[in-house]
Design goal:
Riboflavin_Biosynth_HTPR; RibDG_C; globular; Dihydrofolate Reductase, subunit A; 5 helices; two-stranded antiparallel sheet; 186 residues; Deaminase; alpha/beta; 8-stranded mixed β-sheet
Length: 186
């Protein structure tokens, strides 16, 4: 069982534009050619920030076109927010705020031996790292630059903070990098 930050980013290190748009991502390749299908099978619980959750709510039509349903996750999901957000029909969502450690313990129990996916955003993944709870970072680097936007990981990780486990070419649009997070490195 691992806690993994699995995401995509532009070549210059952004998850989304300043307006939280992911439109840059979709033309770059087919998700089924990446490790995502096998990755999601091993996931037992999901964590996401409010911006990610709100993007799914705002783009339910696009998500449904891409996946066949507006909420494509069967796993219990914790949404980290300090605000009251609407629930989405068919989603098994728990709203959480404060220390990620408390919610992580609940996620571990719910995952039942499977992995915990830190879906995003970057600040949420960094909070899990700061708490010593992040085991791996898996990032698909897209062949685009955004110039500005939401950063992949808004923390300084200096050597030896990460160990590269694998690098895989995915079509012509992505390089998928998997890193092990070394504990107690800030």
């Amino acid at each position: 069982m691992k806690t993994q930050y699995y995401t995509s980013a532009s070549l210059d290190g952004f998850l989304a534009t300043e307006e939280d748009s992911l439109e840059w991502l979709f033309p770059l390749g087919d998700i089924n050619q990446t490790s995502y299908p096998s990755f999601i099978e091993a996931v037992g619980a999901i964590a996401m920030g409010s911006s990610t959750y709100e993007w799914i709510l705002r783009n339910a039509g696009t998500v449904s076109e891409q996946t066949g349903t507006a909420w494509p996750y069967t796993q219990p999901t914790w949404v980290f927010t300090s605000r009251k957000l609407p629930t989405m029909e068919g989603a098994n969502v728990t709203f959480a705020n404060g220390d990620v450690g408390t919610a992580h313990a609940q996620m571990i129990a719910a995952a039942n031996g499977r992995n915990v996916w830190i879906m995003g955003g970057g600040d949420l993944a960094a909070q899990f790292h700061d708490a010593g709870l992040l085991d791996e970072i898996i990032v698909q680097i897209g062949s685009v630059t955004l110039g500005a936007g939401k950063p992949l990981f808004p923390r300084r990780l200096l050597s030896p903070g990460l160990t590269l486990l694998s690098a895989t070419m995915v079509g012509t649009g992505f390089a998928e990098l998997t890193y092990r997070v070394l504990k107690n490195c800030h």
